[in-house]
Structure formats: structure tokens, C-alpha cells
Write a structure and sequence with these properties.
single chain, 97 residues, alpha+beta, five-stranded mixed sheet, 5 strands, 32% helix
Length: 97
């Protein structure tokens, strides 16, 4: 199954990495490598994440990566990464439509 990142999700990951890089550029690089690596497993196990409680739709799921929620939609032949949010942030429903 193919994994597609939305522009919003890539923007969020870039913002997080830039914030981390303010203190430690090497940690920011590690973050990027590891988050993209964590998402790769969805190619083989697209339903491995839990259902997002805010929407309760079985095709809208999330994986937890450190303090972050990676929210994605399982489709017929692909997984679409919709957004990445800090776990303590409220998830705007407009980001997952």
C-alpha cells in the first residue's frame, strides 16, 4: 500500500523539526528520520493505528510517535497522512476532512 503525505502533514512535520533544530539540529534530523520511518510501517499494516476518537470512523486512524499524533486515512490502495499534531493540542476536525 502506498503512503501519501498531505501538504499540511508535511508542513506540520517541518514546523516541528524547525522548532527542535532551534535547540539541537542533530535531534531535528533524528526526529525526521524516525517519524518517516514510523509511518513506513503503514505500507504493510495500514490498520495498525487506533481509531481517532474525535471522529470514530474506522478509516481515520492515528499512530503515536513520541508526543505527536500522526493522523491518517486508510483508503482502498493507499494511506493518506492527513496531519501531525502534538498530543496535547486539540485536533481541528477540518484537518482530517
Amino acid at each position: 500500500m502506498k503512503v501519501i503525505w498531505s501538504p499540511l502533514a508535511l508542513e506540520r512535520v517541518d514546523e516541528i523539526a524547525a522548532y527542535i533544530a532551534g535547540d539541537d539540529a542533530q535531534a531535528a534530523r533524528r526526529f525526521l528520520i524516525e517519524i518517516f520511518g514510523a509511518v513506513e510501517r503503514l505500507q504493510s499494516f495500514p490498520n495498525s493505528g487506533r481509531v481517532v476518537q474525535e471522529v470514530k470512523r474506522p478509516n481515520i486512524r492515528e499512530i503515536i510517535f513520541g508526543n505527536y499524533r500522526v493522523v491518517y486515512r486508510v483508503e482502498r490502495k493507499r494511506v493518506s497522512i492527513l496531519t501531525v499534531r502534538h498530543g496535547k493540542q486539540r485536533l481541528p476536525l477540518k484537518e482530517i476532512k
